[in-house]
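ok here's Transferrin receptor protein 1, seq below lol
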Amino acid sequence: MEGDNSHVEMKLSSDMDDEVDANGGGENTNQHNHPYYPSKLNQRSPKTICGFVIGILFLFIIGYLIGYLSNRNTDKTEIKSNCPVFNEIAPVRAEAVYSLDWSDLRALLKKKLTTLNINTNLREFSSASHQAGSTGDEALANKIMGKFKTFGMSTWTDEHYVKIHEPGSSNNRVLFRGNVVETTEGYLAYSAIKTVQGAALYAHYGRAEDFRRLQDRNIDVNGKVVLVRAGLLSFAEKVGSLTHSYFKSSQVKVHLGTGDPYTPGFPSFNHTQFPPAQSSGLPSIPAQTITIKQATAIMSKLGGRTSPDGWSDGMLRDTMYSLGDEGDIITVEVNNVLIQKKIHNVFGVIKGYMDADRYIVIGAQRDAWGPGYARSTVGTSLLVELARTITDMIKNDGFKPKRSIVFASWSAGEFGSVGATEWLEGYLTSLNMKMFSYISLDEVISGFDSFKATASPLLYELLESTMKQVSSPVDATKSLHEQFAGSNWEKSVMEPMGLSHSAYPFQTFSGIPSISFRFTSSYPFGTIEDTDQTLERYTSYNTLKLAKTAGEVVGLVTLRLVHDHLLKLNVAKYTSVIRSYVSQIRSKSGRLPSTVTMQWLLSAQGSYDRAASALISAIRNSDLDDMEQCRIINNRIMRVEGSLLSPYVSPRESLFRHILLGSGSHTLAALVDHLEAIKGGHESADIDQFKNQFALATWTIQGCANALAGEVWDMDNEI
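and the structure came out like this:
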C-alpha cells in the first residue's frame, strides 16, 4: 500500500522465471517502483511450450490407464442377506459380467464331478431309517445343511406341520374265504380307514382299458374287492384296489394329489388358522398292498372265468389266471393312524452375479420308507455333489453364474411330494415370476434298460442338445442321444408327466418349467428291498457311472440356464402342443350344437403362434449384449408356463391347474374326453358344462398369448 494507491501483481511460474533471468541471476529486487508488464503466450520460449504440452498429455494418459484398469476388475461382491427367505434377495444390476465360455464350463463340470465324491456321499447319506419327520430324517437334514455351509453357500430351512399316515397298533389284515392270508406287510398312506368285504375280481393293472375289457364281458365291478398288479400307473390312480406287489412289503400313498391332503391349496405352517378341509383327491374306500406270497395264495384259488389274453404273468407258472367269482370273498381291514409330524426342507443357494432374483431350483427327496437307496439316497448324494462342484468352479475357476441356483432337500416326499408342495403353496405368488425352472433328482437311477424323461415342452430342445453332449456311461464312443434316443428322440425318451413324477406339482400347480429323468427298469421302489445291493444288481454294477452321467446331465442343463444371456426355453414348442389339442377337439366337434363354434379357439391358437414367432424375431434382431434388453425378453419367456394355469378353478378342488399338462375338467384333454362322451350319448355328458369349460380354456390360451406378446400395445387380441 502506498497512500491511497494499491498495486497487486499476479505472476505465473514461467513469468517469474523470465523475471529472475532478466534481473541478473535471480536477485530479489524491489519491483514496486517499476511498472509490470505480464508476459504473453507468444512471448514464451518453445522449450516452455513443449514442456507444458507434454505435462498435459502425461496426465491424460495416467487418467486413462487408471480408468481402464478399474473397469477390468470384474470381481463383484456377493449379496449378503440376513433374511433366510430367498425371494427377498435384491437383484444385482451390472453392465456385464465376465464368465468362462461354454466349452470351458463343460470340461470343468466333467472334470470336477467325480465318482469318488459321489461314492463318498452315497456312504455318508445312506440310512436304514429316515422316515419323514423322524430323528433319522432330521439327522440327514443337519448333514446336508452342514455340507452347504462348508461350501460357502447361504442356507435356510422351511418348517411345516403335516398330517401323514402310519401303521396302527392293530396290523392291517387280508382274509380270503374267512381265513387270514399270510402276514400283511406295508400299508398305503391316506387310504380310507375301515373294513370292507366283497367278492374278488382280478383287473390286471387297473387301467381304464383294463376295466373296459371287463365291461365288454359284462362283468360288474361294483361291490367287488379288486386285485391289480403294481406298475404302469401310480398307486393313487389304482386307488380302491387291493394291490398285489411282487416284493416283501411296501408303503406308498393313494392320495390323488400332492402335498398335505388336509391343507389343500394352502401351506401347512404351524398354527395356521384355516377351517377344516381335505383334498378332493382323498379316497373314500380302503386300499392295501399284499406280498407275493399273499397274491399267490389268493390267485391260485380264484374261480370264475379265465382272464383275457396277456393278463397272466407267470406267477402261477403256466396256469392262466381266473377273474374270480361270487364265492371268492375277500375281507380287507385297514387300521392306519393319522398323525401330525414336523418336517424340514433344507436349502442352500449360489447367488447370481447379475440377476440374483431369478433362480433355478434343483431338488431331491430326502426321506424314505425303509432303506430308500434308489428312492432318496442317490438323489441326495448327487444334490450335494453338484453343489460342491459348482461352488468349486466359482471359487477356483472364475465361473460367475448370471442367475442364482437353489439346492433343495425335501422331506415327506414318500407321501406325495408333501414337503415340496407345501413350500410351493407357501410362496406361490412370487415363485412363478422368479423361479424359471425346476430339476428333480428323485429316482434318477433304477436300472439301465432305458433312459426316460418328462419335462415341460419349453425344455425339450435343451434336454435333447444336452444328451448329445454327454457320453454314454457304458460306451464312451457314443453320446446319450446315440445310445437311447434313436431316430425319433421324443418318442424314444419323452413320456407324459404324471402324479408319479415329483416334478409334477412344480409344473402343473405352480407353472414352473420342470424336468425329471431317469435310467430305469422295473425296480422295487417303496419296499424294504430298495438297498444298495439291489440297485447294483439292477444296474449291472454300473451305479457310480450312471450317477456321474446323471450328474452331468443335470449340471449341463443348470449351467446353460444360468450362463447364457437368454434363457434356453423354447416357447415355440407349445405351438405344436396347442395345435394338436385344437385339432383333436375340431375333429370331434361335429355333434356340438351350432351355438358352439371353433372360431375363438382357432383365433386363440393363432394368437399364440404369432406371439411366439414375434418373440423369436425380436431375439434375432436384438443386441444380446444389452443386459436390460435380455432381461425384458427373459421376463416374457418366464410368463408362458404360469399363464397356462387356469385362473378359473380353485386349487382346493383342482390343484393341478395347467390346461395342457394338468388334470381336471379344465384341461384340453378333459374337453376331448367330454366330446367323446357327448358323441356316445353317455349320462356324464353335459353340453352346457362343456360350453363353459370350452370358453374358459380358450381364454386361458389367449391370455398366455397376451403375456408372451409383452406390453399391452403389442398384444394381438381379436376375440
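fwiw The CA atoms of residues 5 and 284 lie 114 Å apart. kinda neat tbh
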